[in-house]
Amino acid sequence: MRSVFVAVGALLALAAAQAPAPADTILVNGHVITVDARFSIAQAIAIRGGRFAAVGTDADIRKLAGPGTQTIDLHGDTVIPGLADDHLHDAGGGPGVDLSRARSLGDVLAAIGERVKASRAGDIVVSNSDWHEAQLTEHRLPYRSDLDTVSPNNPVVLVRGGHEYILNSAALAKWHITRETSQPAGGRITRDAHGELNGELIDRAKALVQLPPSPPLTIDGLVAQHRKLNAAGLTSIRYPGASIEQYRLLQQMEQRGLLTIRVNQLLRFGADNAVAMRDAIARSGVTPDEGDDWLRIGGMKLAVDGGFEGGWMREPYAEPWGEHGAFFGVNTMKQAAYTEVVKELNRLGWRVATHAVGDAAIDEVLTAYEAANAEQSIRGRRWTIEHGFVPQPDQFPRMKALDLVISAQDHLYLAGPSLVNYWGAARAGRTTPMRTYLDQGFVVAGGTDSAVVPYPPLWVLYHFVSRDTISGGVMGADQRISRKEALQVETINNAYVTFEERAKGSIEPGKLADLVELPEDILSCPEKRIEQMRITMTMVGGRIVYRRP
Ligand SMILES: [Zn+2]
Q: Which of 99, 196, 224, 436 would you label with 24, given CA atoms 20 to 30 Å apart?
């Protein structure tokens, strides 16, 4: 026993000799939802060197303040860990026509018409991609004939999300797309009830159109986007398949101290065979998981099907989209080539994240992942299925055997009414079955797919706990999850996807000091307030990156 006392005494002496430096910042008088393993609630936080130094009562934390310590009085506000988005392409916007605020077909046509009037003969009018027809009261796309009414001469291309263009007649003529044009592999040229082209081009059919190049991504542009994301409460994002050029820009930003959000980037090379993939990786000079707490490579992004209008299903689409039971969605990368690429990535030590929306697409992913796993185990490496809208019960044991992580988003919140049109009410109501995934024991991380779906993470939390949608009411109420579960999905589970759950995702001593201040208690406020409340303050690495004016 005596030796133990000696040891304790020595430790106390050591602690006294090396009394910790005062905190850089303390936050007191708050309601701190730590999202630690026990979901502890605290009053106050101390931050030192960009990390949480202590979490506890006001009295405990005030003791850690010195003369140079900044004290933030939270006035009873709620603090949660910084929020994350596991699948965010960009923050929306761009040089095209802004349709994000359109709420009717009339709004869309007015915005397009205005740009047409300001254009010269022959100019191509293009929209930004961050809008969806489900936000319009009519719940349908503007088609060729609608667009012709405001632009009889100038080619118009509405870009909608990442999978779809809608062209007017002048644009169809410009790119020589007619009724005789054959359906491209992995894509679709859509027709109306009379067999006429309605202007809609899906997935690889978009390659028939050559849009003017969008202005190159710049550091200033990325800084501005990250500021918008910080203002929504985001402190970490995962870019789901961006270019090597974007990664190099982000590296420059980190070197110059310009990052205000932590970034994990999946690379996307568009290589559709093993040799091309190996060559692309070698040329890039990037290694798996390279990086640090600010910027890290997270793996390789692949895709096997379309989105809302092209998710590849076991059962056909609902009519009229089902074309009398003949349309099952779009398979953008065939099994043999996809499996070959997946196996090669595994051999090279890369983790794989695959876009798979429909159940048939998930089948293809599981078949390829199983083939890779047979060569060299992928268990424990947190490979993901991105989206996983419509999993089937027979797929859960296969996902489990591979130890997969689910990367889910709130597409239903935006697109609910359209998904009913495409897939029927029952299948739409099962879209992104969060309750089922969690009950099956999967780690599920959450996000938005911005700019396909708007980026505010509070909207994701609201949708996952309510299953409410922007314009279609509650869908699939049995898939609701609790507020605590939703908070985990948006924080610590996101950290898990990138192997960073020990570094961030909860408010615990030693972790990176990323947090969000909210004006209301997100665990007890009226449900609708989760969607409506505004972020008060966002902090990344102990530095305030947003404060509401
Ligand atoms: Zn995406």
A: 224
In degrees to the nearest 10, what's the CA dihedral of 16, 20, 26, 31? -70
H or E segment at 336?
helix 335-347
Tell me, in angstroms, the distance from the centre of ligand 1 to residue 49's CA.
35
Q: Would you say 387 and 161 are in contact if contact means Cβ atoms under 8 Å apart?
A: no
Q: Please tell me the predicted confidence (pLDDT) of residue 186.
A: 85
CA of 389 to the centre of ligand 1 (A): 12
**DSSP letter string, 464-485:** HHH---TTT----GGG---HHH
Tell me the CA–centroid distance for residue 112 and ligand 1, in Å.
26
Beta-strand pair 405-409/444-447: parallel
Largest CA distance in the chain: 94
Binned at pLDDT 50, 70 and 90, residue 323 comes out as confident
- Ligand 1 centroid to 109 CA: how many Å? 27
DSSP line for 175-205: TT--TTSPPPTTEEEEE-TTS-EEEEEEEGG
Distance 171 CA to ligand 1 centre (A): 26
Confidence band of 125 (pLDDT split at 50, 70, 90): very high
Instruction: Calculate how far, in angstroms, residue 409's C-alpha sits from the geometric centre of ligand 1.
Output: 9
**CA neighbor of 129 nearest in space, from 246, 214, 239:** 214
